[in-house]
């Protein structure tokens, strides 16, 4: 047997055909857990403030929370292993781990604390949020609400518990038990302990304390001395907790749960073989145990039940569609094995009856009701859409992979050079001339099949040709006969372009890779063993280079398959099923528009969205109407010049917007832009102020000067100016209150009386003096500067001091500062040659420019 088999890790666990059905929450982009739930990293400790506020921590920086209904993943901000958690309240929770990691939860977020050490921190306990103790490698750390400090005379330990701040026990290596009386730490090594180390401690009071460790060693302290307790097991115990001195639980290896009723310790059925590292409860009838591969158990007063899903190892995954996916695996259970098959229907994973006790390693199908699975001792199963049934393979060699071109052209490969072929009727052995183990098979056609393992074999339709390789290979996949990829030991990825040679690719990793799959030549995934940070390897190839992806799993991944590049599943040890989902962006081309001929029109894609928050690429395309040129069609908001109608009728332009996040393209969205003729007969599209006048006209700020004209060269009167400004400020549908006669020269019956008095009430004008407004006087450019800035900045606005920008506006001019601020804001550049013409009247054409620039029309 080849050494490469060492990568096929099996975790001990219990498998039944009544595995729970578990629903999968909608995933964001990235790799998300689908089993176990809410995640599958090993959990090391559990604690809470109530039955509806429970925290568990573990490997890879994992923190999960239970709200009384469901468990959910929390962002910890670290990938360091976390060993202990303790809660003072729902808004004061502490977690500790390797490299001196201490985290604090304030009820909303977890944040890192300065521990002052890089040592291994193993456990945490306290009496309040300002009196917390942590066991470190060589010391005990204490938090007083302000800072962490090492305690004088303390020694490192594995676990800590106390009845008060003046009565604390720690247990650790070399059978050491330490006690703190509020002033001094003292240590002893009681003879009663014959095992090393002591791993757990808990008490009901200062004279009712329990300690446990390897070999199911349990001892009890009565306030005077420690005494031996018979546990009835030899498993290593990892944690202790109780609701009282007569209701205590101990958890440990192989799913061991012991219960003490005040008289003796008895084993309870946990339903799992996973090591249980932590136990805690809110009451005698509400107890949680957590452990290996994300195992979560709950005791509700009668039996222990699983909360997290199966933890058997999965070694193969395949599907016929996104809503029809199979995962296969198995578990060593004492002297026997049990095969496991799960099925995913797009919402739930559920257990299928496999009918075998053999671990399954590979799966492939011609369709969702014509599926093959292979495994130990020549096991081959077939699924017809209703049930799995065994097939005669003709071999007892272990089978590691299966693949086919059709239902009557299927290959299975495995130990001792085994290659089997199925012709739709029976399986037959194909001679290979080698005893190398094979782990992967894929082909581009019936005349081009590639098998990899200790060597590489290729079938040309007549015979197998073998090629020795210095690296053991585990899986193979390709897009065509001249584009084939194989992965294997030492981070190996090799590429074959159809010839006899394979070229190594740079992967950036030395860990063994177990599986490979892709949606195209520029979208390929590979999975494997542990990275340097202890997490499973996932690599992605974009057609140019391989780059790592964050898996978030502390373990190995063995197989990968997807229905597309944005819907990918991978499986691994400890029951791991991860899913990669890249949701489709949503294009929004905006609302249909009506624009005037000759103006600059703007398309608006600002309402586009992507549920995964990816960076989006925009692509606008005109699909109908007279051709126009889009400025920057790859932007969210491109512009174009509306065509001239030359006296003709309306035209309709249609534009289509699609989005891409680099992998997935959105469905197109369309918008119509109707181009209508110019509004006023005396302002044609070639007029210098045409675009500005059309902009205030389309907003109904003006209806012109009568008979279809605008009169762009006429001066703006102060009465007209009042209407222009108030409609620009408040909208075209605004109607002021009737005039009451505020100004002597504006009687209540004046046509613009209500507008003038509204402008005065807004503090934009105080009139022209002596209680008058002078409604028929032309507005000067100086006056307009003041009016515009007060309209946008408020009546109390005062501009910065004057510096002398315009030659005809000397320092000290009554409106000098206002005029220069108007220029600073880009609303005016003056009237030419460095002048402003402050006393010149504002024409109606100029007024359109001022309003458009001031209010951003």
Can you give keywords for this protein?
Methylamine Dehydrogenase, Chain H, Immunoglobulin-like, 4 domains, disordered N terminus, mainly beta, 5-stranded antiparallel beta sheet, 4-stranded antiparallel beta sheet
How is the secondary structure organized here?
Layout: E1 22-23, E2 31-35, E3 43-50, E4 53-58, E5 63-66, E6 71-74, E7 82-89, E8 92-97, E9 102-105, E10 110-113, E11 123-128, E12 131-135, E13 140-143, E14 148-150, E15 159-164, E16 167-171, E17 177-180, E18 185-188, E19 200-205, E20 208-212, E21 218-221, E22 226-229, E23 237-244, E24 247-252, E25 257-260, E26 265-268, E27 276-283, E28 286-291, E29 296-299, E30 304-306, E31 313-321, E32 324-333, E33 336-344, E34 348-352, E35 360-367, E36 370-375, E37 380-383, E38 388-391, E39 399-406, E40 409-414, E41 419-422, E42 427-429, E43 438-445, E44 448-453, E45 455-459, E46 464-468, E47 473-480, E48 483-488, E49 493-496, E50 503-504, E51 513-520, E52 523-530, E53 536-541, E54 546-549, E55 557-564, E56 567-572, E57 577-581, E58 593-596, E59 600-602, E60 617-624, E61 639-641, E62 651-660, E63 669-676, H1 690-698, H2 718-730, H3 753-761, H4 781-793, H5 816-824, H6 844-855
Parallel strand pairs: 58-63
Antiparallel strand pairs: 1-34, 2-57, 3-4, 4-5, 5-6, 7-8, 8-9, 9-10, 11-12, 12-13, 13-14, 15-16, 16-17, 17-18, 19-20, 20-21, 21-22, 23-24, 24-25, 25-26, 27-28, 28-29, 29-30, 31-32, 32-33, 33-34, 35-36, 36-37, 37-38, 39-40, 40-41, 41-42, 43-44, 44-45, 45-46, 47-48, 48-49, 49-50, 51-52, 52-53, ...
Helix pairs in contact: 1-6, 2-3, 4-5
């Amino acid at each position: 047997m080849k050494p490469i088999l060492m990568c096929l890790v099996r975790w001990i666990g219990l498998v039944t055909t009544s595995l729970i059905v578990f629903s999968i929450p909608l995933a964001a982009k990235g790799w998300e857990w689908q089993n176990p739930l809410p995640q599958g990293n090993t959990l090391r400790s559990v604690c809470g403030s109530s039955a509806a506020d429970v925290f568990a921590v573990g490997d890879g920086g994992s923190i999960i929370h239970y709200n009384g209904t469901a468990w959910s993943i929390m962002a910890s901000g670290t990938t360091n292993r976390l060993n202990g958690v303790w809660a003072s309240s729902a808004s004061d929770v502490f977690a500790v781990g390797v490299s001196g990691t201490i985290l604090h939860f304030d009820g909303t977020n977890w944040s890192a604390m300065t521990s002052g050490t890089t040592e291994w921190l193993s456990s945490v306990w306290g009496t309040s949020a300002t009196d917390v103790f942590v066991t470190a490698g060589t010391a005990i750390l204490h938090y007083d609400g302000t800072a962490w400090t090492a305690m004088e005379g303390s020694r490192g330990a594995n676990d800590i518990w106390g009845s008060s701040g003046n009565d604390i026990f720690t247990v650790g290596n070399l059978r050491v038990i330490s006690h703190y009386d509020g002033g001094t730490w003292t240590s002893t090594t009681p003879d009663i302990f014959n095992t090393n180390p002591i791993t757990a401690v808990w008490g009901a009071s200062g004279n009712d304390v329990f300690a446990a460790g390897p070999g199911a060693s349990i001892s009890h302290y009565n306030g005077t001395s420690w005494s031996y307790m018979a546990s009835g097991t030899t498993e290593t115990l990892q944690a202790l907790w109780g609701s009282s001195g007569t209701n205590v639980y101990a958890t440990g290896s192989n799913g061991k749960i012991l219960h003490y009723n005040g008289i003796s310790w008895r084993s309870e059925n946990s339903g799992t073989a996973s090591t249980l590292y932590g136990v805690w409860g809110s009451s005698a009838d509400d107890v949680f145990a957590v452990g290996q591969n994300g195992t979560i158990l709950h005791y509700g007063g009668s039996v222990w039940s699983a909360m997290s899903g199966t933890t058997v190892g999965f070694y193969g995954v395949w599907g016929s569609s996104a809503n029809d996916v199979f995962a296969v695996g198995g578990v060593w259970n004492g002297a026997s094995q049990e095969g496991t098959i799960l099925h995913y229907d797009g919402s739930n994973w559920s257990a299928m009856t496999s009918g075998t006790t053999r671990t399954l390693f590979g799966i492939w199908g011609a369709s969702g009701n014509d599926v093959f699975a292979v495994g130990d001792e020549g096991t081959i199963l077939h699924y017809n859409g209703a049930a799995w049934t065994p097939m005669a393979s003709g071999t007892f060699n272990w089978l590691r992979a299966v693949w086919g071109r059709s239902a009557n052209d299927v290959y299975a490969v495995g130990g001792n050079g085994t290659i089997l072929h199925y012709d739709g009727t029976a399986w037959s052995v194909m001679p290979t001339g080698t005893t190398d183990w094979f782990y992967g098979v894929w082909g581009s056609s019936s005349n081009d099949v590639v098998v990899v393992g200790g060597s590489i074999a290729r079938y040309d339709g007549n015979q197998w040709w073998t090629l020795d390789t210095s690296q053991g290979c585990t899986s193979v996949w390709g897009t065509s006969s001249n584009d084939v990829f194989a992965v294997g030991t030492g981070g190996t990825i090799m590429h074959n372009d159809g010839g006899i040679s394979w070229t190594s690719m740079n992967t950036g990793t030395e860990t063994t890779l177990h599986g490979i799959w892709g949606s195209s030549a520029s979208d390929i995934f590979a999975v494997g063993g542990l990275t340097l940070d202890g997490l499973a390897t996932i690599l992605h190839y974009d057609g140019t280079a391989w780059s790592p992806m964050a898996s978030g799993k502390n373990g190995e991944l063995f197989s990968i398959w997807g229905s597309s590049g944005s819907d990918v599943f991978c499986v691994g040890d400890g029951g791991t099923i991860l899913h990669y989902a890249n949701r489709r962006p949503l294009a929004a081309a905006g609302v249909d528009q009506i624009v005037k001929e000759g103006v600059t029109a703007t398309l608006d894609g600002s309402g586009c969205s992507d549920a995964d928050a990816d960076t989006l690429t925009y692509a606008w395309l005109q699909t109908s109407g007279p051709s126009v040129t889009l400025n920057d069609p790859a932007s969210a908001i491109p512009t174009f010049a509306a065509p001239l109608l030359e006296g003709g009728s309306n035209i309709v332009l249609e534009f289509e917007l699609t989005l891409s996040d680099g992998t997935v393209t959105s469905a197109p969205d369309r918008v119509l832009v109707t181009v209508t003729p110019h509004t006023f007969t005396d302002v044609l599209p070639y007029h210098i102020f045409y675009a500005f006048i059309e902009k205030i006209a389309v907003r109904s700020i003006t209806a012109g000067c009568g008979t279809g004209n605008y009169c762009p060269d006429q001066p703006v009167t102060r009465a007209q100016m009042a209407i222009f400004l108030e409609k620009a400020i408040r909208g075209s549908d605004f109607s002021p209150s009737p005039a009451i006669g505020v100004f002597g020269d504006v009687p209540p019956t004046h046509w613009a009386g209500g507008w003038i008095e509204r402008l005065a009430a807004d503090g934009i004008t105080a009139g022209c003096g002596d209680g008058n407004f002078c409604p028929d006087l032309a507005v000067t450019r100086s006056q307009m500067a003041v009016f515009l800035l007060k309209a946008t900045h408020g009546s109390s606005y005062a501009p910065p001091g004057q510096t002398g920008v315009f030659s005809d506006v000397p320092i000290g001019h009554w409106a000098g500062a206002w005029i220069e601020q108007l220029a600073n804001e880009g609303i005016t550049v003056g009237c030419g040659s460095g002048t402003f013409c402050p006393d010149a009247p504002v024409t109606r054409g100029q007024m359109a420019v001022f309003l458009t620039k001031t209010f951003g029309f």
